[in-house]
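Lab notebook, bench 4. Still working through the backlog of constructs that have no structural model yet. Next entry is a single chain of 71 residues. Request: give me the structure tokens for it.
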Amino acid sequence: MAFLEWNIKKGDLVKITPSNDFETISYGIVMSEKPCVEQISLFPVVRVFSLASGRAREYYPYNLEIVSNIP
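Model written out:
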């Protein structure tokens, strides 16, 4: 079994790569390390505030690339 370590923290600057053709690549700030819903999630997600759209949304690891992290 493979182990995936996802070192993303609140306050990190991330590059958001969309999973569809309707959105463009943008940047955002990580707002939380856990989803805001009270369900058990099969895949990890984090809430990110998009600087392009001005709203927060949950993203999966394959949509995000850490640009700058806070130590």
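Notes after review: The chain has a mean pLDDT of 82. Residues 13-68 form one domain. Flag for follow-up if needed.
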